[in-house]
Amino acid sequence: VIWMTQSPSLLSASTGDRVTISCRMSQGISSYLAWYQQKPGKAPELLIYAASTLQSGVPSRFSGSGSGTDFTLTISCLQSEDFATYYCQQYYSFPRTFGQGTKVEIK
Amino acid sequence: QVQLQESGPGLVKPSGTLSLTCAVSGGSISSSNWWSWVRQPPGKGLEWIGEIYHSGSTNYNPSLKSRVTISVDKSKNQFSLKLSSVTAADTAVYYCARAPGDHPAFDIWGQGTMVTVSS
């Protein structure tokens, strides 16, 4: 099983801020990593796959980087609709696993 | 576009079997995608349960494998989840999701259905 450490678990930020969320793997996964956004009462939505490829329709203020064991999700200019919980997920091996989540809240 | 819709009982008794179905619309379940179940206990994170291909090939989470069966019904364009011997720990929102074969991140999700295990 590949374990994932996502940090921070809670991030307080203001509209317009640049925020960064980290995801570290217990072993290398090449670039087989995705990032999701989840709002309360809603299903997760795919933001980024293959570590850095933006899913169609996702605003360009979202970006992903990294490979191997260390990955980062960056939101360049936080908007009001971006306050949500974010999860990383590896699809390099089975079982598929998710990070614990990062809640981005209004400061 | 492809949409997924979960259905099934919202309440299951302890030691019983949880049964859910995910209907696929706007596309064929026989396309080059894997079809997954993911769950989320109240206030907690996401857990992958397992997946199926239209051929019937499956992959399961080892933590649940002894209790899980995922099946596909191509004639109805749907796939299903059965989870046996449920306990309160299985109370969660259950999502079905699609993962394309080339980059199997979950690109389409159902809205989710809440299942409570209680007598």
What is the helix content of chain A?
A: under 10%
How far from one another are the termini of chain A? 36 Å
Pattern of helices and strands of chain A: EEEEEEEEEEE
Structural class of chain B: mainly beta
Radius of gyration of chain B: 13 Å
Arithmetic mean of pLDDT of chain B: 97
Most residues in contact: chain pair: A-B, 23 and 22 residues
Rounded radius of gyration of chain A (Å): 13 Å
> What is the oligomeric state here?
heterodimer
Please state the overall shape of chain A, judged from the principal axes of the Cα atoms: globular
- Characterize the largest beta sheet of chain B: strand count, sense, and whether it forms a barrel: 7 strands, mixed
Describe what you observe in this structure:
The complex is a heterodimer of chains A (107) and B (119). Chain A has 107 residues and is mostly beta strands. Chain A has no helices and eleven strands. Chain A has strands spanning 4-7, 10-13, 19-25, 33-38, 45-49, 53-54, 62-67, 70-75, 85-90, 97-98, 102-106. In chain A, the strands form two sheets. In chain A, strands 2, 4, 5, 6, 9, 10 and 11 form a seven-stranded mixed beta sheet that branches. A four-stranded antiparallel beta sheet of chain A has the order 1-3-8-7, with no helix packed on it. In chain A, strand 7 (62-67) and strand 8 form a beta hairpin. With 119 residues, chain B is an all-beta fold. The chains are: A mainly beta (107), B mainly beta (119). Chain A binds chain B through residues 1, 34, 36, 42-46, 49-50, 53, 55, 87, 89, 91, 94-101, and chain B through 36, 45-48, 51, 59-63, 95, 99, 103-107, 109-112.
